[in-house]
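Today's session is about reading a structure prediction critically. Students often jump straight to the picture, but the first step is always the sequence itself: look for stretches that repeat, for charged clusters, for runs of hydrophobic residues. Only then move on to the predicted structure, which in these notes is written as discrete structure tokens rather than atom positions. Here is the chain we will use throughout the hour.
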Amino acid sequence: MNQSQKVLAKFLRNPTSLRYSEVHKILIEFGFQHKRISGSHNIYQNITLPADISIPIHNNDCKDVYKKEVAKIIKKIIKTR
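Below is the predicted structure for this chain, in token form.
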């Protein structure tokens, strides 16, 4: 198991344990594109999803609710693979 797989496993077990920078790396690995920044909101797009993901960033981190939502989306992507 390489480092990125360990970080992903840790994230899926406990999404609140990671900082935003690690969540960003996971999103990029799963084919999301960092589309734009609108104020404090970072917008991510994936062609397989009907809507974009918006994550507000404050003090170089995001709230746990957004991390949990990203974890749900990543789990769905893993199931469809």
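Discussion point for the tutorial: The chain has a mean pLDDT of 94.
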